[in-house]
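The data are quoted verbatim for reference:
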Amino acid sequence: MPFLLAVLLSFIPALCYAAIVYWLDRFEKEPLRLLCGAFAWGAVVATIGAIIATTVLQLGVGIITGSDAVAELAGTTVFAPIVEEVLKGLAVALIFLIFPHEFDSVLDGMVYGAITALGFAATENVLYLYFQGYQDGGYSSLIALFVLRVILGGWGHAVYTAFTGIGFAAGRLRPGLGSRLLFPLLGLSAAIFLHGLHNIMATFLTANLGLVGLGATLLVDWLGWGVALAVMVWAILRERRWLVLYLREEVALGTISATQYASACSLSGQMSARIRGRHARQFYATCAELAQKKHQLAVVGEERGNTARVASLRARLVQLAPMA
């Protein structure tokens, strides 16, 4: 029963947070199969890999230094941020490499990174709530850890790995191999830095200053979350600008009507379309994808058949328009 409670208190909020991320992706939703795969990677592959790798590294430090305390400190403040962010970032990298046509914008990168990290956080929280919560102090300790890790700190992992996604997206939208290597590394470095900063503050400030240190750590975390949210809002508005710019030509070509153009470029119009039914949802999602592909064609050129994709999406819009 306690373990089941730990699972429920970890996975239900993580899935709710994932639903919020999915909702924020307003114009062109990412495929659910990829999002489910990213969540599962974080929950299983990244978590198990992180436990094994961090344990091995800690044992190595313990053998070299002869100190369990030094090994544990190194594991928490150095190894965990690096290992966990690399393993979570691998899911984003695989999507970037295998499904590049689904990786269209900064917002897409943030979504894939955050969803992967929420899967990781869900499994990690199960282990914390049960082993360090219930087994150490019973149900009261379990609930205290739930409030601290899941409620007050629930967006931490998602924000860290979202920066890895930003890095891959920035590289995706720039020509040249150098950019495609540099920007993902910068994004991963930002994720590792933020994760490491949190762990260092949580370790030293909480130990030395108690609740004051905890409050300072949470304040820095929340400021980071605020920055990530601001970037996400900027990315949403940029996708809207692409719609306004690139769909204007489609009205002139007769692909879509002026009324459909106005709805496609409007957040409220998109929300109304999702209520009207499947055909309307498909139509406006295709509008968003067409705008993004036209932007990619303008920025990076042909790249794996962008011209053909634009033509295919335009033809699909012509088919869907009468039913939208």
Notes: The chain has two domains: 2-237, 241-323. The mean pLDDT is 91. The longest helix spans residues 106-152. The two ends are 49 Å apart (CA to CA).
